[in-house]
Specification:
The protein is built from 6 helices and 30 strands. By secondary structure, the chain is mainly β.
Length: 431
């Protein structure tokens, strides 16, 4: 409902906004698979919410005029001209988990941190409630907290899974209660020059991932690509991770790492990797493991550096169905058995897709580990390929770990741990 203000002269007016937060109408209900759930069908087609407006009743010389004006902020930019930003109604308190995934390895207790911020200078007394699955306990006590605009809170807890909670991903939720009002959301903004700024309010949830993960080795080097969150997942598994830049790629420095991983599209965005090729291959030849995540190979995104000493082609093939059946081409392959025994269950719960930019036209020295395909499509076997080089291991994967690890898929953690551990397996490869 709009706000009504009656006045007969120009004056400053204080209004109290009795309105909910400015949540985009298509995000008020939980997302369905591949679609938004909008209960009020009359809203369909609106690019944004209706703006909060004020109705004015004006009487001039006995004649009544009624008009409405949106509440918005106008600014001037020397390049873009006049800019308008609608009023956004924020919650009094915002709450969120610091991490999207809280990973417990082998049922170990794991810290969970939640932040609470205030959007008002009025001091609030609050309590917290955390919704946990039955197989997760916490040390949280029924404490009362105080908060105001200048004193945000961080609530530190410890979550303890039971021994039965292995290889599960479940959602946990956090809520602050102040003056009998529940606050369980935080604000995020989408800002691009070509569209109006949008503020929305996700719920304060996170994934508690309980995974049976064995790892071999201790130190991992990570060469950043175009941006992903795989490095954080590697640390969650229990590895010590070091981000590597061009200056770090030396024979002496690389000796400390049990494996080196390149981020997604690293060979597309970092031409300096061409100069690092000989050093990386020397590292592998001497017993190291190099895991290369997907790259593209086309005019818009060419590979700017040599990847492996053995020939292969990066295709544009992908498997878009996240539940596509995965075939183990050789169930005894070390990448499927050490240190974690990978089964079909490890491919349950994947999101969005299985694999992109698979390898094909492989040198005979490569072996394909997995095969999969979308419905009514030909089978593809280039999502995970590996080869020996000297004493070390070369691995290329188009599997979308960059999606599955941030989504908290336990099986993706287990399989990626096997890739990182490939050089530590003393048993011979079985054909």
């Amino acid at each position: 409902d709009s706000l009504k203000v009656n006045f007969n002269a120009t004056k400053n007016i204080a209004v109290i906004i009795h309105d909910s937060i400015t949540q985009p109408y298509w995000l008020k209900e939980p997302l369905q698979k591949g679609s938004f759930d909008v209960n009020d069908q009359t809203l369909i087609g609106k690019p944004v919410n209706d703006q909060l407006s004020i109705d004015f009743d004006v009487v001039i010389d006995g004649e009544k005029f009624v008009f409405s004006r949106p509440v918005q902020y106008k600014s001037n930019d020397p390049v873009k001209g006049e800019l308008y930003q609608p009023l956004v109604v924020l919650p009094r308190l915002e709450v969120k988990y610091v991490d999207n995934n809280i990973v417990s390895v082998n049922s170990k207790a794991v810290p969970a941190h939640a932040s609470i911020t205030s959007n008002t200078s009025v001091k609030s007394e609050l309590s917290i409630v955390q919704q946990l699955p039955k197989d997760i306990s916490t040390n949280n006590s029924n404490k009362t907290y105080s908060i105001d605009l200048n004193n945000p809170l961080t609530v530190n807890q410890v979550l303890q899974p039971t021994a039965n909670a292995l290889n599960h991903k479940e959602q946990i939720a956090f809520m602050a209660i102040a003056n009998n009002v529940n606050y369980d959301r935080y604000s995020k903004s989408i800002k691009y020059d070509h569209i109006p700024a949008i503020t929305y309010f996700p719920k304060a949830t996170a994934n508690i991932v309980t995974a049976d993960i064995k790892i071999a080795g201790k130190r991992i080097g990570y060469i950043p690509g175009a941006g992903d969150k795989v490095a954080e997942a590697i640390q969650q598994m229990g590895y010590a991770l070091t981000v590597l830049q061009e200056k770090d790629i030396t024979d002496q420095n690389l000796k400390q790492f049990d494996a080196i991983v390149t981020g997604v599209r690293a060979y597309n965005v970092s031409s300096w990797l061409n100069g690092a090729y000989a050093t990386l291959m020397s590292y592998v030849n001497n017993g190291g493991t190099l895991v290369v995540q997907y790259n593209t190979n086309n005019n818009n995104g060419p590979v700017k550096a040599k990847i492996f000493p053995y020939d292969f082609t990066i295709s544009r093939n992908r498997v878009s169905e996240e539940d596509a059946q995965v075939k183990f081409l050789n169930p005894t392959d070390p990448l499927l058995n050490f240190p974690n025994k990978i089964t079909a269950a490890d491919f349950d719960g994947w999101v969005q897709e299985r694999s992109i930019y698979s390898a094909e036209q492989l040198d005979p020295k490569f072996r394909s580990v997995l095969a999969m395909h979308d419905a009514n499509e030909a089978e593809q076997s280039g999502s995970l390929v590996a080869a020996d080089y000297g004493k070390g291991k070369l691995i290329y994967t188009g599997l979308v770990f960059y999606r599955e690890l941030p989504a908290g898929v336990p099986g993706a953690y287990r399989l990626f741990a096997n890739l990182l551990s490939a050089g530590k397996n003393s048993s011979p490869k079985k054909n």
